[in-house]
Write a structure and sequence with these properties.
The chain is of the alpha/beta class and 186 residues long. Helices cover 60% and strands 12% of the residues.
Length: 186
């Protein structure tokens, strides 16, 4: 009788261990599946990052000007730049007060878009959204610069990407494509 009780005890302990391992496995799999579903839901919704580059380039230009100026003239050059900046700020404030006057010519803008291509050109959806956003504001005086990286891929997918770029041409918005990396077949 003692052997049967010991056997049943060992048998129950074995099932408890197997049940624990099975529960751990099911938990890990459900966490992985849940995370992948969350990523798929977020794919359709993206965001656009808009970065004005004017101030960065102005600062770079001023720094280069001061660095390349003779040391004896650097102080005078810095004062001259500061005075010019103050005047520009005051002019901009005056111009912003006259916003109701729509005859003021707008500065042309350059919109920079990135396209990271892969075999299936899966970034076409994002490119479509970016181009749609640009077309809401762009005028023929503006320009779109597309930075292209592509490892090559299916022709029909890249055809869809080119049709998105054609939307810019149809609206007479100048387009420049800079090829950064491209497949040997591209």
């Amino acid at each position: 009788m003692e052997i049967k009780v010991e056997f049943l005890f060992e048998y129950g302990l074995f099932f408890a261990k197997v049940g624990t391992l099975l529960l751990a496995f099911v938990t890990v799999v459900s966490v992985i599946v849940g995370a992948s579903q969350k990523n798929k839901e977020g794919e359709g919704k993206g965001h656009l990052e808009i970065t004005p580059l004017n101030h960065q380039f102005e600062h770079l230009k001023d720094t280069m000007l001061i660095a390349t100026t003779d040391e004896s003239l650097q102080k005078a050059e810095e004062k001259k730049l500061n005075k010019a900046k103050k005047k520009q700020l005051s002019d901009e404030k005056k111009a912003s007060k006259k916003v109701s006057d729509l005859s003021i010519p707008q500065r042309s803008k350059v919109y920079v878009l990135n396209f990271d291509g892969n075999i299936s050109a899966s970034a076409v959806g994002h490119l479509r959204e970016e181009i749609t956003a640009v077309l809401t504001q762009a005028t023929p005086n503006d320009e779109v610069l597309l930075k292209l990286e592509s490892a090559g891929g299916m022709v029909h997918s890249y055809g869809l990407a080119s049709s998105q770029l054609d939307r810019l041409r149809k609206k007479n918005v100048p387009l420049t494509v800079c090829v950064d990396k491209v497949a040997a077949s591209g």
